[in-house]
Amino acid sequence: MRPSPAAIVTSLHARTGKTLLARVLGDYFALSGRPPLVFDTDVTEQTLRAAFPYDTVVVDLAETRDQMTLFDTLARRAPEARVVDVSHHALRKFFKVMFESQFAAEAHVRNVEPIIFYIADRGADAYEEARHLRERFDDCAFVLVDNAFVGKVKDKTRRSAAYQEMQEHDLRMTLPLFDQELADALDDDPALSLGDIVAKPLSRSETGRMPGDLAFDQRAALRAWVMQAFRDIHRLTRTIETRAPALSPVAPVL
Amino acid sequence: MKPVVLMVGADKGGVGKTTVSRTVLDYLKAKNTLVRAFDAEHPRGTLQRFHPDVTEIVDVTTASDQMRMIDTLSTSEIKVSLIDIRAGLLAETLDTLTEVGFFDLVNAGEFNFGLMHVVGSSVASLDEIAEVLPFMKGQHYFIVKNFINDTSFFEWNPAIYKNYFKGNNTAVEVTIPKLNEMAYEQVELAGVPFTDYIANKHANGQPANNSLVLRGYVRTWLRHICDEYDRVGLIERLTDRRAAAA
Asked: Across the interface, do B213 and A102 touch by the CB < 8 Å criterion?
């Protein structure tokens, strides 16, 4: 049986496109016949919840009970895919609990494949964090995501050891650039289904909100963008599934 | 190996004495050291509830149970005996052991002896320590500051604290960190050793359905405690009595 993917989307800083990538992943899994369980760790904004209003659980990682809801569900043996949007505020707590609970090892035992999608940005500290997470969770697939929208990497960052080391990383994807107007449209309408953009026929005769209140050219551009992202996600999840599992045996009790 | 008696006691109830005993049993098991335990919470037996395989309930005030513990030290194949003393009976038990000549045997080198004295955070605990100190000359004395049940800081004035230890610098301080309340509560409900809870097992060895997150909290907490026992050389001290006198 194919493992159930548990996509963990994160980045060190705000405004890097985490929630957008989480939306894309959620829609990808839905269209692949594995409607996901979605978790939003941003208790204030709850942006991801707007995209998946019926399937999203908002969790406050400061609360033990919510930590249990999140990790115990993520590691559950069940066919659904899972998507977690780990806000930059929640990053430290999330990975601390993930590490201490030996989540990846237990998830593997239950046929769940955790995949960290880490979005790097322009700063060297973002690559330091990427390297740190990859090393700390070496039993977990790690995808480095370059989001063209966050801008060109700084020269200082390029010279950093962490950046150069991460250039050798093989599991990676790029979120291509799209225009500001389209980005604003996505921001303004978090409920706009990216899956619908791909699944529904693209026709000039469509008007109104079918899907989204977007002009034909915008829908066409967004469709191409989402298709590219879907292809990348498909390639990566397939690669990870077919790899020899990066299993670490469940660690001794002490 | 010389027989070892490790006593865990407190004069005040509710300081987490049995919790400390439970961590010691888990620690010794992890170190492949066989141990038997006597639970003096007669007749209730809290320690026995968690470690029934190795624990007997005893009434330390009766001669027959004293014999069960002391007279079997040399003959038992298990060389380490842990005694979880009932709250409030620590000084009295040390008196009793003195009367029956136990400390004479310890001083003659027949047994090794250690006391883990679990103290509360109030200054009243210093009086409790003062009461116990006369018994502990040349013995292994571990003062256990237990933070598991509360976060309150220890209000001991360092100068007063130092004064209490004048002439006895063999006491070793051990700190037990706080455990997440929900995790603690769930292990209590499960009624199994901490290591079994972490390994997701019921008391009968069958797989349990304990929370991954809570197991993580317990694992990290117990690992810190084991590191602390390593740091103070708990096993080394108890198996080589000379270290205390040195």
From this structure: no
Mean pLDDT, chain B, as a whole number? Answer: 86
CA dist B21 and B27 (Å) reads: 10
pLDDT at position B126 is 73
**Cross-chain Cβ contact A68/B214 below 8 Å:** yes
Residue B134 per-residue DSSP state: G
CA dist A116 → A9, A73, A143, A240, B125 (Å): 6, 17, 6, 11, 50
Beta-carbon pairs below 8 A across chains A and B: 49
Which one, of A147, A93, A89, lies nearest residue A121 by Cα?
A147
* B226 in reach of chain A (CB within 8 A): yes
pTM for the whole structure: 0.89
Res B153: pLDDT:
58
* Spatial separation of the C-alpha atoms in residues B179 and B218, rounded to whole Å: 7
Residues near A219 by Cβ (< 8 Å), separated by ≥ 6? A197, A202, A206, A211, A212
DSSP letter at A140 equals S
In chain A (254 residues long), the average pLDDT of successive 10-residue segments reads: 93 92 94 93 88 90 97 94 95 97 94 96 94 96 92 90 94 89 82 84 63 77 92 95 65 63
Q: Which residues in chain B touch residue A106, judged by CB atoms under 8 angstroms apart?
A: 212
B197 band by pLDDT with thresholds 50, 70 and 90:
very high
The complex scores an ipTM of 0.87
Of A65, A97, A254, the CB nearest to B216: A97
pLDDT given at position B245: 45
The residues near A212 (Cβ < 8 Å, ≥ 6 apart) are: A185, A189, A192, A196, A197, A219, A222
Q: What 3-state DSSP class applies to A119?
A: strand
Given this model, what pLDDT does residue B150 score? 63
Inter-residue contact B193 to A253 (CB < 8 Å): no
d(CA A22, CA A233): 11
Comparing C-alpha atoms, which of B200, B214, B58, B76 is closest to residue A72? B214
Q: Which residues of A touch B219 (CB under 8 A)?
A: 100, 102, 253-254
B183 at A interface, C-beta within 8 A: yes
Sheet with B112-119: list strands edge to edge: B55-57, B35-39, B80-84, B4-9, B112-119, B140-146, B172-176
Which chain A residue's Cα is nearest to B197?
A253
Which chain B residues touch A75 with a CB distance below 8 Å?
212
